[in-house]
Design brief:
The chain has two domains: about 70 residues, Orthogonal Bundle (Helix Hairpins); about 110 residues, Iron/manganese superoxide dismutase, C-terminal domain (minor pseudopilin epsh fold). The chain is about 50% helix and about 10% strand. It has nine helices and three strands. It has a three-stranded antiparallel beta sheet with strand order 2-1-3, sandwiched between helices. The N and C termini lie far apart (about 95 Å).
Length: about 240
């Protein structure tokens, strides 16, 4: 009787072990983790509605989560055949487009420009913005444009005057402040200049709230400029160029 029980116990253990092996054999193998994409969407540094009533929450959500995200996705897709490009920052790629393989140069210029321009823009805005430049930037604006008010007027005219889609910029060019515009997603970095301030005048940046009233949108933009941040970034950029 004892031997019979031992045999049955051994057979049961064998069956259990076999069933366990079968279960593991049938279970799908865990998929390997996807490699991290070289370029990622930076988080919006405030809530979608933080810039109300000047920039509406729906536009901010669509602008960041859809439009900017699409530039990042498309940039990563564009460089899949040239993964070495992912070892550089998007700013470095734009600053030396001639070094980017010709097959993907246009995509890097457009998609990378969209990513870099928006990444630069978001932190220059703030719910506590709208005051005035400070420190060295304030002094250099007065020296270059006569006054902050004069800069606003000229910047506004430049932004309104962009034909189609693009950006208006205040840049640092060889130690001097300069106003300029760019079409589509082109960046001043590609011309050797350092962005200091910008406004996106693509229609997706303002059409839900302002429709075709771009001038009203640019006026609203000046209500949310984070001048403390912009001024500190200017000081850093100028010292780096020294």
């Amino acid at each position: 009787m004892i031997e019979r029980r031992s045999v049955l116990k051994a057979l049961g253990a064998t069956a259990t072990l076999a069933a366990t092996h079968a279960a593991f054999a049938q279970a799908p193998a865990a998929a390997p983790a996807a490699p991290a994409a070289p370029f990622t969407l930076p988080p919006l540094p405030y809530a979608y509605d933080a810039l109300e009533p000047y920039f509406d929450a729906e536009t901010m959500h669509l602008h960041h989560d859809k439009h900017h995200a699409a530039y990042v996705k498309n940039l990563n897709a564009a460089i899949e055949t040239h993964p070495e490009l992912g070892n550089k920052t998007v700013e470095a790629l734009l600053a030396d487009l001639n070094a980017v393989p010709e097959a993907v140069r246009t995509a890097v210029r457009n998609q990378g420009g969209g990513h870099a321009n928006h990444s630069f823009w978001w932190p220059t805005l703030s719910a506590r913005g709208g005051s005035a430049p400070t420190a060295e930037l304030a002094k250099d604006i007065d020296a270059s444009f006569g006054s902050f008010s004069a800069l606003q007027d000229k910047f506004t005219k430049a932004a309104i005057g962009v034909f189609g889609s693009g950006w208006a910029w205040l840049t640092l060019d060889d130690g001097k402040l300069k106003l300029e515009t760019s079409g589509n997603q082109d960046s001043p970095l590609s011309a050797g200049r350092t962005p200091i301030l910008t406004v996106d005048v693509w229609e997706h940046a303002y059409y839900l709230k302002y429709q075709n009233k771009r001038a009203d949108y640019v006026a609203a933009f000046f209500k949310v400029v984070n001048w403390d941040y912009v001024s500190s970034q200017y000081a850093h950029a100028k010292s780096a160029k020294a």
